[in-house]
Write a structure and sequence with these properties.
The structure is a homodimer of 430-residue chains.
Chain A lengths: L6 E6 L3 H12 L1 H8 L3 E7 L15 E2 L2 H5 L5 E4 L7 H10 L3 E4 L2 H18 L3 E2 L11 H5 L7 E7 L2 H13 L3 H10 L8 H4 L2 H15 L9 E2 L7 H9 L2 E12 L2 E12 L11 E8 L3 E8 L3 H21 L21 E10 L5 H11 L4 E7 L6 E6 L2 E2 H13 L3 E10 L6
Parallel strand pairs in A: 1-2, 1-4, 2-3, 4-5, 5-6, 8-10, 10-17
Antiparallel strand pairs in A: 7-9, 7-11, 9-10, 11-12, 13-15, 13-16, 13-17, 14-15
Chain lengths: 430, 430
Amino acid sequence: MAENRPITVALLGAGTVGSSVASLLAENSEDFAQRIGAPVHLTGVAVRDAGRARPGLDPSLLTDDVLGLAASGADVVVEVMGGIEPARTAILAAMAAGSSVVTANKALLAEDGASLYRAAAEHGVDLYFEASVAGAIPLLRPLRESLAGDRVLSVMGIVNGTTNFMLTKMDEAGADYDDVFAEAEALGYLEADPTLDVGGHDAAAKAAILAELAFHTRVTIDDVHVEGITDVTAEDMRAARAMGFVIKLVAVAERVGEGIVVRVHPAMIPRDHPLASVRGAFNAVFVEAEAAGEMMFYGRGAGGNPTASAVLGDVVAAARNRRAGGLGPGESTYLNLPILDIGSAHTRYYVNLDVADRPGVLASIANAFAEHGVSIQVVRQDGHGAEAGLIVRTHRASDAALQATVQSLRELDTVKRVVGVMRVEGEAGD
Amino acid sequence: MAENRPITVALLGAGTVGSSVASLLAENSEDFAQRIGAPVHLTGVAVRDAGRARPGLDPSLLTDDVLGLAASGADVVVEVMGGIEPARTAILAAMAAGSSVVTANKALLAEDGASLYRAAAEHGVDLYFEASVAGAIPLLRPLRESLAGDRVLSVMGIVNGTTNFMLTKMDEAGADYDDVFAEAEALGYLEADPTLDVGGHDAAAKAAILAELAFHTRVTIDDVHVEGITDVTAEDMRAARAMGFVIKLVAVAERVGEGIVVRVHPAMIPRDHPLASVRGAFNAVFVEAEAAGEMMFYGRGAGGNPTASAVLGDVVAAARNRRAGGLGPGESTYLNLPILDIGSAHTRYYVNLDVADRPGVLASIANAFAEHGVSIQVVRQDGHGAEAGLIVRTHRASDAALQATVQSLRELDTVKRVVGVMRVEGEAGD
């Protein structure tokens, strides 16, 4: 390749992220040329409506022919349209034309990453997707490359900024779920379909991507157990606070025996855990590896410029590989560990009960835990008389045993109501 | 290259890190083979005394001929001996023989990284050194690669675990410097020459490496302003705590105007800053970039297995490049920004004074700050009568102006003694 032939980049999508990518490419063109060893030339920007003027974008670059631009043979095709189609078809067309692909498309990767990897291998091109999880935080490159000489044991992250904003408000201001939902909506933080955020589905897509890289096992969003934050109450928050915990929506991928479990749900986390101090729209991912021990990666999980930063880091990597004649890491799913269901997870529960106020109540409740082999860590009595309440925190047990215990509790006549049940994560020991 | 020709690795050094590298390579050989696409074959281990048996190491691999093994033409030479020589000669010999090099040698990189980069470029081989800063934390790869599409504004890190252990003890247990020094010594945490830790020189070497990557500018340890923790007192700790701060030894590299400043010194950090909660022997580095915003990387900064994890990640990267025919990122010092002295840094000061208890004292002190253009943020009066004390925290100003202010304070007859002076970092605003 001639020393100074420009690296050509085609951009699919000009929303928040796409616009940032285009403007940063223009503003920092000198830096890109130095870092890559050749100038970067933006060859086109595919948009839905090429007639609409976009500030800062040369109108002659705009096209509504997504597939045409994707297949134009640029060195690097950047896909930031989102959604499954036409993104998938465009990416496959780009690879067939010999282009390396950089994408931020978590939904597509979590649904059908395998097709993209397969096409990349077939055509000898790169597939990079740092921006698909936790926006600006360099996370996937460390997992794919820095930890390539280690064995990951677990990944636990706060990977959805909107729900973390909401839970932070509920924790710090004592606000109700409905109020913080309305506030997030007013601020434009929620996806067009808000269940993607509050139902945990956005976090689940990211959990699938993280799990695949961490465990060298193909994982799709359908493999992820998902519970959202819609049932988290101000009372749960208060109870968590009283015990020295905070409630976060966590995405967990972990080895369990010879398999893995991937799950997204609200969880109580001790306030001195590094993830507990991740406030507002920030994201963070806590990784535990066999040799490296505990690590955390923290930063902005969304937004035009932060996401564009991650996209452009990948563009530089793909461009350098073009010039050096090499390739970045491809798919690495050689282990293909069995994906176990949520019942196999090992975790702890917090259980909040309204109970009858009479002798023998605690004995009957303790018995329900013991029957399922679940060991109690702490019991706290709350209130008196007709209002008697009991809060139980368990030691570690299988999620199946914990669920069965809660079912038994519901059937006890000493238990008037199961007020709240939540998993507890991030505590040391059993 | 034949599909399954083994990747050969020569290991220079079998101390704590080298032994971990060798045993992890053996234990996880299946994983390495899968991740690289070819088995890894350890061809030799260079040690000072080849006659001494080392548990877990095949005696037939041991040699005391460091340079011979270095120049043996292995695909990857791993240098974990430390020190300047014979490490430098060995690395240059390895590169001349066509080997890619993975090193954890912060001292050599901070003193003469340029020679290593130059030799790597000349011979078309890789130079990776993730383990040289912050042990297991994937940090250099994110800086070199993930942020390659962004502009770093500042890097601030806790990169020396021993001093962080000592400062954490002083903060949490109210211990004196001498006591925590003795404890660190008893635990074997201190380097053979303890001034490398407590004098800040180990942190300075890491600061130079971080600054070079962050600012695309050649930085050596001689460019770093260094102050250690030997003057930090239990009283400073108490004062910091009373103001809601904690004292950490920070390594800072930052853009200042058209240049950069690189400095290592104790600093007060607000307790709600992410770095404040980095306790004990953990390391963390806080990075601010133009597009990505704020990020933090957190994990174990030292120890055999954590450091070996970083080394082996680099071995996998170098091995993959060998197989794909590409090269990792080389030196990127195209900016070569001027390195400014500490007086040009913009920071805040905490100043603790014993003052005369008479009218006009505060006015004379306020005047000393104003004369040097330093604006006061908070003044707090402590004690009464003969024991009158005054604590001042400033707004941001040049370090030169702050130093000149302290000099003026020392000369005031209303100031009996300057009890403590420390920089304050990590506060928002001016």
